[in-house]
Design goal:
This protein is α/β, with parallel strands linked by helices. Among the domains are: about 30-60 and about 450-480; about 325-435, no CATH class; about 485-725, P-loop containing nucleotide triphosphate hydrolases (Rossmann fold). About 45% of the residues lie in helices and about 15% in strands. The protein is built from 23 helices and 20 strands. The strands form 4 sheets. It has an 8-stranded mixed sheet with strand order 13-20-19-14-18-15-17-16, sandwiched between helices. A 5-stranded antiparallel sheet has the order 2-9-4-5-6, with no helix packed on it. Strand 10 and strand 11 form a beta hairpin. Helix 8 runs antiparallel to helix 11. Belongs to the etk/wzc family. It is found in: Cell inner membrane. Keywords: ATP-binding, Cell inner membrane, Cell membrane, Coiled coil, Exopolysaccharide synthesis, Kinase, Membrane, Nucleotide-binding, Transferase, Transmembrane, Transmembrane helix, Tyrosine-protein kinase. It catalyses: L-tyrosyl-[protein] + ATP = O-phospho-L-tyrosyl-[protein] + ADP + H(+). GO terms for molecular function: ATP binding; identical protein binding; protein tyrosine kinase activity.
Length: about 750
């Protein structure tokens, strides 16, 4: 292969690829799969953590139980006494709609009384151990020994305290008191530890706090001396409202008249007691309400019976007097019919009038029920007036007999009916039977309704997986590094000549290189069948075409920043070229931190810096045949001014001589963005490659490196994409990103003063 002579005249270089139009932002499912595969450990860790948290919650959370009861609201009420009180009893059946009964069931009238009866405004809680105390207590069968880490009072057993009475003034409601069991009874303390007194079980304890007095009566307790309980008296109204909001009542099926009440809580026995108490109080108020209605009617009848009796006696007296004066005679058939009809109408009229008087005690004259009765009364009065008109056609004696007979019958029937109703209502009042009844009493639930452990674990796994995926995509979006070779080509128009995958063997060799162990630590020599070396062989093939228009046979390999594998690439690429029968010279041009000599297990010794300075010749510093066909020149002694030294004319003379002696000269140089050394050496090379490392090198760093080399009159032939992790994503899939959004970073690249020659 013939190359033109080395000269200093820069060739006409193609401009660095400008920004290309950004590709569509469409999301590829394969791209998402790549991210998930790459971040699989993070996703798995987050999912496992979520499942662990969910499992811990499911095991330690306080179980919640639900008790329920069924109450029937009947439309009509039968009686064991048959028809005698059936009519009167039905007059006072309370037929409220289901929604009204639900509100009554949840009212303060019922719920507030239940709070009083069950002392729900009294809070008693053992002083449990932190975190796991309640969980241990739920599984305990006997009292525990009080105390925790030297602190007294803490318990984790089945301790309990029965308080018969605890009265505090309004100002002390909500204040937390402490009851500590003693050998002879109990002692009371305030929240700040102030002793308020001692007493035996069953004996009241009066106390004074903040100028307020109260009284406590502890009936009994389960626990060892020293066990503590937190006791407080809460606001009755607040507890009632809380219970009202917790109590759920609904009609079982629409129109059924069956109400279903349910209550949730951590204590299964307590919630069943509360529901049963509420149900019994609701039935009791219904009976009392019905009895009160009957009492009102009895009071009204008591005022009407004497008056009707007087009217009956007066009508009977007039009738008897008329019979005595006129003698006994009977009404004809027509008059008898009118009498029967008139009596019926008169009775209906008087009943309607009496009912109106009764309703007046509860409603105004504008109420629809009273207005309906007024219309009925007017209609009856018109019918009675019509009959009276017909009766005027009868003889006077027959008219008087008809009138008197009607009055006696009407008054007698009214009095009899009213007396019967009075007796019936007396039975209704004393019967203590309402129109609601408890169908199913609340029983103690056996199994909690929550937490549902299986569901909690499933949801924890799903939420953990979603959180892990979200974290994976967030971490992926925050990575500035290039993730595929296509990014370089699509964003910067820079041709990628080789994609070098990660090698597990190279990671082992890197440890030996850092330790400066003797021997060859070059991957191409130790394990030439590695995929990374095979990629460099493809670069060797492509190099023949890349150097067709090159000015010389010098190949310079550099990169934007340290730590991207340019020395690895340079050394192994030189070895790959040598195995193809080329005479190759590898020069470590990084006179600041060069370490290629460690790949071959040797000391730095004399090298490039001495040749350029003129103190040594190439033959004197050359390490020959480290591998067949491969010679090596190290950096030499670290100079104080590498960039200025490289600008000396001897640098060009040295490279020109090396170019004539070897088929290929490979130069490894410092990072472009770290120091100016590469910009000095690059114009001397005919072919320049830029190394970029997967997920470490940013597009902005590559862009800035191209810009600086262009300013130095150097056209980068292409890129080598190094360190691709094939285990994280599918190989070869591209990601199109615009490069304007990427910045670049500068890294310190200082002299290594401690490393000798």
């Amino acid at each position: 292969m013939n190359f033109p002579p080395l000269n200093n005249t820069p060739a006409t270089l193609p401009p660095v690829a400008t920004q290309q139009q950004e590709e569509d932002d469409g999301i590829s499912l394969l791209d998402l799969l790549d991210v998930v595969i790459e971040q699989r450990w993070a996703v798995g860790a987050v999912t496992a953590a979520a499942i662990a948290i969910g499992g811990g919650y499911a095991l330690t959370a306080t179980p919640i139980y639900e008790a329920n009861t069924l109450i029937q609201v009947e439309d009509t009420k039968g009686s064991s006494l048959g028809g005698m009180i059936g009519d009167a009893g039905s007059l006072f059946d309370i037929k409220s709609p289901a929604s009204a009964e639900i509100e009554i069931l949840r009212s303060r009238l019922v719920v507030g009384q239940a709070v009083n009866n069950l002392q729900l405004d009294l809070s008693i809680t053992p002083k449990y151990l932190p975190v796991l105390g309640q969980w241990l207590a739920r599984r305990a069968t006997e009292p525990s020994s009080p105390g925790f880490l030297g602190m007294g009072g803490y318990v984790s057993g089945n301790e309990s305290l029965q308080v018969a009475k605890f009265e505090v003034p309004k100002a002390l409601e909500g204040q937390r008191f402490s009851v500590k069991l003693t050998a002879t009874g109990y002692a009371l303390h305030s929240a700040d530890g102030q002793a308020l007194g001692q007493a035996a079980f069953g004996a009241p304890l009066g106390f004074s706090l903040m100028g307020q007095t109260g009284e406590l009566l502890v009936a009994s307790a389960v626990g060892q001396p020293g066990a503590e309980f937190h006791v407080s008296k809460r606001s009755h109204l607040a507890v009632t409202q809380s219970l009202q909001s917790s109590l759920k009542v609904a009609e079982q099926t629409k129109g059924s008249g069956v109400l279903r009440g349910s209550l949730e809580g951590a204590d299964p026995e307590q919630i069943s007691r509360i529901l049963n108490e509420v149900g019994q109080l609701y039935v009791r108020q219904n009976v009392e309400r019905k009895a009160a209605e009957a009492e009102k009617s009895i009071t009204f009848l008591n005022s009407q019976l004497p008056e009707l009796r007087k009217q009956l006696e007066a009508s009977e007296g007039k009738f008897n007097q008329f019979r005595s004066q006129q003698g006994t005679f009977n009404l004809d058939s027509e008059a008898q019919a009118m009498l029967t009809q008139g009596v019926g109408l008169k009775v209906k009229l008087l009943e309607a009038q009496q009912k109106r008087k009764e309703l007046e005690t509860r409603f105004t004259a504008q109420h629809p029920s009273i207005q309906a009765l007024d219309n009925q009364i007017q209609a009856l009065q018109r019918e009675i007036g019509g009959l009276d008109g017909k009766a005027k056609s009868f003889p006077a004696t027959q008219q008087d007999l008809l009138r008197l007979t009607r009055d006696v019958k009407v008054n007698g029937e009214l009095y009899t009916n009213l007396l019967n109703s009075f007796q019936q209502l007396q039975l209704v009042k004393e019967g203590k039977v309402g129109n609601v009844r408890i169908v199913d009493t609340a029983v103690v639930p056996e199994r909690p309704i929550k937490p549902q452990r299986g569901l909690v674990l499933a949801l924890s796994g799903v939420l953990g997986l979603l959180a892990g995926l979200g974290l994976a995509f967030m971490r992926n979006s925050l990575k500035p590094g290039i993730r595929s070779a296509d990014e370089l080509e699509q964003a910067l128009g820079l041709h990628v000549f080789a994609t070098v995958p990660k090698s597990a063997v190279q990671q082992q060799l890197a440890v030996q290189i850092v330790a400066k162990k003797p021997g060859i630590h070059l991957l191409a020599a130790v394990k030439p069948e590695e995929a990374a070396i095979e990629s460099l062989r493809s670069l060797r093939t492509a190099l023949q075409f890349a150097m067709l228009d090159a000015r010389n046979n010098i190949v310079l390999i550099t990169g934007p920043t340290p730590g991207i594998g340019k020395s690895f690439t340079s050394a192994n690429f030189a070895a790959v070229l040598a195995t193809a029968g080329k005479r190759v010279l590898l020069i470590d041009g990084d006179m600041r931190k060069g370490h290629i000599h460690q790949f071959f297990g040797m000391e730095r010794g004399m090298g490039l810096s001495e040749v350029i300075a003129g103190s040594q010749t190439l033959a004197q510093v050359l390490h020959r045949q480290l591998l067949p066909g491969l010679d090596f020149v190290s950096t030499g002694t670290t100079p104080p001014n590498p960039a200025e030294l490289l600008m000396a004319p001897t640098t060009q003379q040295f490279l020109q001589g090396a170019s004539q002696q070897y088929d290929i000269v490979i130069i490894d140089t410092p990072p472009v963005l770290a120091v100016a050394d590469t910009a000095v050496l690059a114009p001397q090379a005919g072919t320049v490659f830029l190394v970029a490392r997967s997920e470490i090198t940013a597009l902005g760093e590559v862009q800035e490196s191209l810009k600086r080399l262009t300013q130095a009159g150097v056209a980068v032939k292409g890129a080598i994409f190094n360190g691709l992790d094939l285990s994280k994503r599918r190989y070869g899939h591209g990601y199109g990103y615009g490069y304007k959004r990427y910045g670049y970073r500068y890294q310190a690249y200082q002299y290594n003063q401690t490393e000798g020659a």
